[in-house]
Task: structure prediction
Amino acid sequence: MQKRISNLPFHDTPEQAQKLDEVIEGLKGQPGAVMPALHEAQEIYGYLPIEVQKKIAEGLDVSLEEVYGVSTFYSQFSLTPKGRNHISVCLGTACYVKGSDKVLERLTQRLGIQPEECTEDGAFSLTACRCIGACGLAPVMTVNEDVYGRLVPEDVDQILAKYTE
Amino acid sequence: MYRSNVLVCGGTGCTSSHSEQIIERLNEEIKAQGLEKEVNVIRTGCFGLCALGPIMVVYPEGAFYSRVTPEDVPEIVSEHLLKGRIVKRLLYQETVVDDNTTKSLNETTFYAKQMRIALRNCGVINPEKIDEYIALDGYAALGKVLTEMTPQEVIDLMLASGLRGRGGAGFPTGLKWKFAAANDADQKYACCNADEGDPGAFMDRSVLEGDPHSVLEAMAIAGYAIGASQGYIYIRAEYPIAVKRLQIAIQQAREYGLLGKNIFNSGFDFDIDIRLGAGAFVCGEETALMTSIEGKRGEPRVRPPFPALKGLFGKPTVLNNVETYANIPQIILKGADWFRSIGTEKSPGTKVFALGGKITNTGLVEVPMGTTLREVVEEIGGGVPGGHTFKAAQTGGPSGGCIPAKLIDTPIDYDNLIAIGSMMGSGGLIVMDETTCMVDIAKFFLEFTVDESCGKCTPCRVGTKRLLEILNKITSGNGTLEDIDKMEELCYYIKENSLCGLGQTAPNPVLSTLKYYRDEYVAHVTEHRCPAGACKALTNYTIDADKCKGCTLCARNCPVGAISGTVKQPHVIDTNKCIKCGVCMEKCKFGAVVKK
Result:
């Protein structure tokens, strides 16, 4: 998948930096450590800024190319920060056949952003995701941990309103 | 002993529709009524009938409550659990015979034709308690294998059963084991493919959520048969509930000595670890999966050497799919003849299908191989809702094809599906009606494969992209008849020259829709018309002036202000402004908006 890469300035807290150091220390020397390190780093920062990937590469003594190769290969790894509310619209076959593309389209219109982007105020980010396996509720979208099923495009406004207070 | 057992589905589908809150509320209400010593609440795996979720079943009556809300809970507790009066209004209507009697779930059309082997414990036991699995013959097969059988006998039994891989290709499981057993090495691996990437298929997730121990047990059996002491389960990170239950199950199995050193005092050691995927469809391919477990970009490798010789970390490896594993303990306990008595000669046993799309009973069904598509769609699935007609069923996901309505009586097994240009795949079965455009569906799957192609080999990386470009050209009304022929030729080229299964099967959605729905492609090209009315560039919305009452509802709802007109006068859509969202058509109460 085409990855969008953030050009926002990177800031981290001393706590985040320390956590990352601990993760790298724990994985040093293990075969196949890059993926678990990226999973954990994404937990800490919410996404994978290039500065963090550089640190992982140095810490695990692998080239940055290898780390970057892995982080851009897998769709779960995000190189852009997520908004305070993260919306995923399922584009699995069952949801697509039931019109989830129209739900996604309504969201892009309402939020003024495309999938894999974040609104300027940082309130919402949007992504089109692969099947989450809730096909019985198709079409489905998730906002953070909340799942909304059996949607029609008109439901979007009401759902967004819940998160804009 | 409890007087009543309340089973609440804790699968992903029902959890998404708030079954957790129902369980919380149940426990509160039961406590408030002082019933906590009499009534037991159990969170189970998937019942299969996801369309009716959240699902709750109360035993001993077997009352099947559907679409329960937390607000319904006090009534169920005070009426049913306290006073013994079933709350009829909340029952799945098919289980209500008349006013006073209900029938068993197994007699409803959804369940009657099903036969549950892989799903035998889903929706029956609490997956987070190993004792419940053991109570239903759990780990008896592993005990039998380790104490009574040699590895060769296990392999012979698997060969005799005729079990074929449920992940898609249908390769005989026994043969895989035989090859891996024959290769000597200091370390071998028995792995499980739980990277269920096929959109619309969720049986592996349901097995892991509802019955994780059956997979662990079968992996240990595979390990014994081929001489492996370590197993890995590669599972999608998108399945958090399944991951959590697997972690619990592995921990419990270790505590009981069913994983680890010297299992059943037989001298056999076997342990299992989980590896999380990170969202790459190609990692469902066996060599790519192993590369990913090694922590690299999940790109496939050239075969041969096959994994049975050089697999994970260069060692002999067996990799089976979740559903395949879930069948194995039963085959060990009941024998090859029993398994062969189910299904067809070349495809023994059952297959789980995930029914989705335009069908009434979306959910998971397990039927003997050889069941016809008609039985699955019309009887078990309850047909197409909303007065629409069945147009096609799509199986095999992005690697599969469409089965048109005229072939609805085809008995489903591996070989029949390949013969008609589709494939079993992992068992996703998406039903489509006349409003689904087959060119658009082919385009949908190609968008998927273009995204998911790993980029290692040119035919797949470049070829799928060119296919998608041609499909975009056709669906936007700019295609030519020559494009269709060119596209077909390109399909065969990609199939023959791609490195792995992803590329080799990526053109299937195009080829199968071309085979059965070529007229739709031609209509897009020559008449600039989408027969199903799905391709936006080829459809226009207009208002029938005779039917329009001038109620202004459409104009008020149009998001781009493309509709003009005065009250009580027919309205008009400005096609230049119109974004074809279809809101006007949905809102119009008089059927005056027409799509052409």
